[in-house]
Amino acid sequence: xxxxxxxxxxxxxxxxxxxxxxxxxxxxxxxxxxxxxxxxxxxxxxxxxxxxxxxxxxxxxxxxxxxxxxxxxxxxxxxxxxxxxxxxxxxxxxxxxxxxxxxxxxxxxxxxxxxxxxxxxxxxxxxxxxxxxxxxxxxxxxxxxxxxxxxxxxxxxxxxxxxxxxxxxxxxxxxxxxxxxxxxxxxxxxxxxxxxxxxxxxxxxxxxxxxxxxxxxxxxxxxxxxxxxxxxxxxxxxxxxxxxxxxxxxxxxxxxxxxxxxxxxxxxxxxxxxxxxxxxxxxxxxxxxxxxxxxxxxxxxxxxxx
Length: 306
What we know:
Layout: E1 2-3, E2 9-15, E3 19-22, E4 26-28, E5 31-34, E6 44-47, E7 50-54, H1 70-85, E8 88-99, H2 104-115, E9 120-125, E10 128-141, H3 144-147, E11 157-163, E12 168-174, E13 177-186, H4 190-205, H5 211-220, H6 227-250, E14 259-263, H7 267-273, E15 281-283, H8 289-302
Parallel strand pairs: 1-8, 2-8, 8-10, 11-14, 14-15
Antiparallel strand pairs: 2-3, 3-4, 5-7, 6-7, 6-9, 9-10, 11-12, 12-13
Helix pairs in contact: 4-5, 4-6
């Protein structure tokens, strides 16, 4: 690989509770500390002589992402992935990240300091060595960043709904302008749906299944399992999706008066398990859309166009 130019490399990272997303990659948030190098080294990250396996499981939900070092280790893995795609092993990196809409104001500076806790970092990921100098970071509103480039298209009254693994964030966008006083965040993401499906399976069938099976049903509506179990997961998911719509109505969502724009991995719940008018509801199924939005906004800011 080649050395970087002096121009900072902007890397957008969507630090989800279930998955880390960059502009070009997605992996689970699991971080497992190893005392020695494991047999399978496909997702091995080595930092300060400590070995970590990345992505075996999802990280437990925590409202404060700075509560431990896991998200920092996951940030290094994301940076390593993106630099490798660019053919780089040494780079000046400007991070672009985000937080749920209503948490940005309170946690922004702490999260920025967390991401920039070390100016220079050396680490190895997937067998490649990297030297990174972190030259800056922007912490942006999650969800809104995914649509920031085409806010002008939001005519009239619109509700933006960002459904992630741990949270669901809602914001009104009226005539292309975000309404900060009408934004909300709830702990009602796809992980809670997985838990509901798991509980219903145990109650009705007396079995447990791997979460990957449930997630396949959420994402595609199908899985390679028996019809009895598939029907139960679908029932639980349909009930959960109805709960999402109920919460939107509690925040005054009315399809006759406004349009709904859904981003985030949880958009599949609306897509697969609710009846909606495609003329009034838009579902952005690009799970990397928010990370891409972070990069565009950070680039505009660095160019003085923001």
